[in-house]
């Protein structure tokens, strides 16, 4: 059963927004040089070199998220990645809600694109069971 067209479109729009957020301010902030970068990452307990590697990982996962054949695996891996980001922000006393929001929106977007995600999450069968004759 194919999802309604509007659900697929909304799912793709949300996915692209997540993709742009991950590759734009998030990954590029880890990959590009800017004033105060080393001090900020050191305060979080990370070296600039490690954050660069994390930026490449984030970029890779964002790309995998927009490829239909790899989007489910990417969502699982990004959930772990975003969990680590949440813990890092909690540990240093920063606002920690953004990685959680990104993860929730990512799974909603994937569920709108691929309804089997919601069926698996809610435990509903793909097809209703046949009616019994009494």
Characterization of this structure:
Helix content is 75%, strand content 0%. The chain is mainly alpha-helical and 134 residues long. It has one domain. Helix 1 packs antiparallel against helix 3, helix 1 packs antiparallel against helix 5 and helix 4 runs antiparallel to helix 5. The longest helix has 27 residues. It is elongated, with a radius of gyration of 18 Å. 19% of the residues are buried. The mean pLDDT is 90.
Summarize this structure briefly.
This protein has helices at residues 5-31, 37-44, 48-66, 71-92, 97-113, 116-122.
Beta-strand level of the residues, as a percent range?
under 5%
**How many strands, what sense, and barrel or not for the largest sheet?**
none
Number of domains: 1
The chain-level mean pLDDT equals 90
Which structural category do the helix and sheet elements fall into? mainly alpha
Number of strands: 0
Assembly state = single chain
Number of continuous helical runs: 6
CA-based gyration radius: 18 Å
Name the shape in a single word. elongated
> What fraction, in percent, of the residue positions are helical?
over 70%
How do the helices and strands follow one another from N- to C-terminus? HHHHHH
Runs with pLDDT <50, length 5+? none
Q: Report the end-to-end length measured between terminal Cα atoms.
A: 28 Å
